[in-house]
Every structure is written in C-alpha cells, then in structure tokens.
Amino acid sequence: SSATLTELDARYHFACDVAKTAASRALSWYQQRHQLVIEHKKDLQDVVSEADRNVEQLVKHLIRERFPDDAVLGEESGGDTAGARFIWVIDPIDGTSNFLNGLHNWCVSLAIVCENEPVIGVVCDPNHHETFHACRGKGAWVNEKRIQAHSAQQLNQGVLGISSSNSQPVEPLTTFIGGLLSQGGMFIRNGSGALMSAWAAAGRLIGYYEAHMNPWDGLPGIVLMREAGGMTNDYLGHNGLQQGNPVLLANTVLYPQLKALLPAHISL
Ligand code: IPD
Ligand code: CA
Ligand code: CA
Ligand code: CA
C-alpha cells in the first residue's frame, strides 16, 4: 500500500532538517573552497571534491540513524535500494562546478521515493536562505511561503530553465532551443539543475527541460512541480531510478507546447 500520512510526515520534517544541516556544512566548505583539491570524473567539466563526499556521508549518517530501514542512494557513493520501502535519493552538492568556482548557484538536493512514487522533494540553497520543499498532497513551498507554477500561456511570456552536460548528445537540445527561440522564447542555464527546477516550481521560470537527469537531480523538481500545480513527465517510468530520464516541467498549458518542440523520436 502507498505511504501513510504518518510515515510521510515524519520523513518530510526530517528531510527538511537534514537538507538544511547538510547545506550549512556545504556552506562552510564553500567558504574554504580555495583549499579543496579539484578532481575530475568523466571529463574535464565533470568535477568533484572532498566537500561533495563529506556532505554525502553526513547526510547518509543522519538518515540511517533516524530511519535505519530506509535505503539511501547518493551521487558520490551509490547505495543499495533493493527491497526498501522508502528510498532517499540525495545529491550533497548540485552545481559542483559553480561551487568550486565561487558561483552562488548550488544546492543540496534530496528526494524520497516510496513504491516507485516520488513523494517528497527538498532543495536547499544556503546562499540565498531558501529551502524549497514539497510532500505529496501538501503543496509546494519556499521556506514558509506557498509557491505555484508560472501562469504563462505562451512560450514568449517568460524564461525557461534548460540544462545540459557534456556527457549528453548535442541533440535533442539544439532542436529544442531552436524551436523555443523561434517562438520568441528565452532560456537560462544556472549550473544547478535541481535548483532551476525548484525555481520553475516557484513560478520564477516558465518551466524546465533537461534531456537526461540523474534521479538525485531530477526527483525533487518532479515533486515540487506537481505540488505547485504543474505537469511533469513520468520520470520514474522506464527504470528512471536506475538510469535517469529526461525531465520536462511546466504548467498544464505550456507543457504540451514544450513537448512539441522535441524531435519526433524523443519520447517522454
Ligand atoms: C549537474 C548539474 C547541472 C546539470 C548536470 C548535472 P552536479 O550536477 O545539475 O546543472 O546540467 O547534468 O550533472 O554534478 O553539479 O551535481
Ligand atoms: Ca557531479
Ligand atoms: Ca547533480
Ligand atoms: Ca552533485
């Protein structure tokens, strides 16, 4: 059976606390970022440091202490999710390249999945004192304020968030951006996909698109946008938790318009 209110409530409050604790630890690393050794993963743009690994271990430790039966899957250390009723999916620092270069757009990103349903999403941005949070059926919020998706009815009535990384093919992104611009649309890439998707749920952006997102980046925005009254693709379909999937977020009017900009062979 799906998650009960009691199970969700306990985890919702705790998830917000954990994200804030992790974000303040990350912020103290950020203030000493010049001392961090930058390492590369898949390519020269794909960076990581001790800060990412340290914050991930802190988050894993806090969750295991409070909910020992829950599974935790993290960007830097993976995790065994087999058989768990609740799966925490965490990115200790989303926007590592920004973080290491002194750009303020990065966040702690955290989601909870129960029976293949994303039920809780939290994005904590300590530089701007904002925590975006949502729990299934309880609306979407930034700190204590309710948020809603943008009210635009046309693509030229605001700015769309778009991300890409160098491990992704140039297509379908170029086709998508071309179509957007030709309709008078505009886009932004801030270097943190989780944070931009939260901005979309808060109605600051008209939506968000990324051709492939890992679950620790994509899931919080899925929960936030649904609770903010908007539409999303079925992110956890087709093994999304194992392999990631595209992410498209927008209000109900713009969602089909954005989907129509994708090349025909792309399915969401
Ligand atoms: C990256 C950021 C970026 C997105 C990449 C992600 P990381 O995450 O979210 O915006 O375009 O696909 O990998 O490595 O900084 O956690
Ligand atoms: Ca990374
Ligand atoms: Ca990330
Ligand atoms: Ca990361």
UniProtKB/TrEMBL annotation:
ATP-binding keyword on record: no
The cross-references to Gene3D superfamilies, in alphabetical order and at most eight, read:
3.40.190.80, Fructose-1,6-Bisphosphatase, subunit A, domain 1
Keyword terms of this UniProt record: Hydrolase, Magnesium, Metal-binding
Q: Name the family the entry cites.
A: Belongs to the inositol monophosphatase superfamily.
What protein name does the entry list? Inositol monophosphatase
